[in-house]
Amino acid sequence: MQLSRLELYKLVSARPLRKLAAELGTTGTALAAVCRKHQVPYPGSGYWTRKSLGLPVELPALPEAPDEVIEITPAISKPHRPKTPKDQSKDKPHKKARRMEHHPLLFGVEGHLRKSREVKDGEFLRPYKRLLPDLISSEGALPRTLRIANALYLALDERGYHVHIAPQSDDIGRIPVSEQEVELKDRKYGRYYSSGIWGPDRPTIFYIDSVPIGLAVTEMTERVTMRYVNGDYYREDSRLVRSMKSWQMTHSWTTEQDMPSGRLRIIAYSPKKGVEWSARWQDTQEEPLEKVISTIVETLQASHDHILKLMIAEDAAEARRKKERAEEWERYERREDARKVAQALSDSRQQLAETIEKWGKAMAVERFFADAEERLNNLDNERRQRLEERLELARAMMGSIDPLDFIENWQAPDERYRSKYRKD
Fold this sequence. Notes:
- The chain is α+β, with helices and mostly antiparallel strands.
- It has 3 domains: 2-74; 104-302, no CATH class; 337-416.
- Helices cover 42% and strands 14% of the residues.
- Strands 3, 4, 5, 6, 7, 8 and 9 form a 7-stranded mixed sheet that branches.
- Helix 2 (17-24) packs across helix 3 and helix 7 (142-158) crosses helix 9 (293-302).
- The longest helix has 73 residues, at 304-376.
- The chain starts with a strand and ends in an 8-residue tail after the last helix.
């Protein structure tokens, strides 16, 4: 089939490349190569998704280039040939490659997590390193937390989704992670209930096509009774407290705190700024997290379209907000421009009034000197010569009294500030 560049451009702009290629008897990859060769742009998958949702889309323009006849050749399947004994030997099943046991993202992570700031017995680890996978755990639950994260990352990796730490970005960030197993109105974690829980600087994410999804694995907290004994708090159900005699508890008291429970929660969320979507799974007595990893992966895959719609809606909303901010900034600049124009006019008028007043005083001085010069003519030569020198010195001290000099030093309103919005 022979087409011009314009005809091919109209065809690829009317339907997805994959469907058009099937109609032309070729493959999408071959048709895309033809378009690139002849500089014919075609819409990507995001264009058709937006169009199907009824959102505004922008069609790439056809660039200028020499018009030429484009030949599209249907794909020809290779004829089947009988297999030789050598080929048959190749078809023998090979041993299945061993599944990766440890995800690369978790290499060396346990050591970094254990290298922690000092924490009370049973509290969450607070590692010094900030660029780590999003894993929140106490020391006792750390081995299982790493196993759960490893199983989840490997399950996603098998589906072709690369789990990694997000690069620095203003558009992608980590959401606050809730650690309470049962959501309560108040929070009582740490001493004086004000201790913060460690979190990484960047989220752990993977992509389904163009949709980013954040992942966090956290140990949950439970509300427990703590007893104050000898300057520190211990769980009421701990061996130390249960072994104490009644007289040893004379000066002790109890309080409630949120403490790590050993049970885990997986949280998936949209790390894109402005997109509110999250899902979570946690340990239960009937079903621990190890048994729901495959279900989690399937749920995340099924959430792709919903998250994409939210992202597109947020992009449209952000575009509106950006336009509103630009309009508000222009209104502000116009107000400032009008204020500066009015101020320049006022200052110019004030200077002109002062200039006229100075000129009035200068004219009085001029009359004084004119009268003095007239009187000099009636004096004898000796005195007149002496007074002429003094009169000349006095004139020099008073400076110019020419009205044009006064006008030349005056600043007009446009010389002070010229409006940026005034029509020419």
